[in-house]
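REQUEST FORM: STRUCTURE PREDICTION
Request ID: SP-0412
Submitted by: Lab K.M.
Chain count: 1
Length (residues): 61
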Amino acid sequence: MKFRVEDMSCGHCTAAIEKAVAEAGGRAATDLAARSVSVEGLEPERAAQVIRDAGYTPQPA
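STATUS: Completed
RESULT:
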C-alpha cells in the first residue's frame, strides 16, 4: 500500500519511517521528492499506525 506523508521532509524522516516499519515486521520504500511511502508486509491500518507512532501523518495515496 502507498501513503502520502506530507510532513516527511528530510533524510532523517525517511530513515525513521523505514526503521519503524521494519521493526513492526514490514518493509518500507520512501520517496522523499514525492513525499510518499510504500509499505509491504503489514496490514494497511497497522502500517498507518506505525507511521503515526513514528511521528508522521500518513494519508492514503
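NOTES: The chain has a mean pLDDT of 97.
Reviewed by: T.R.
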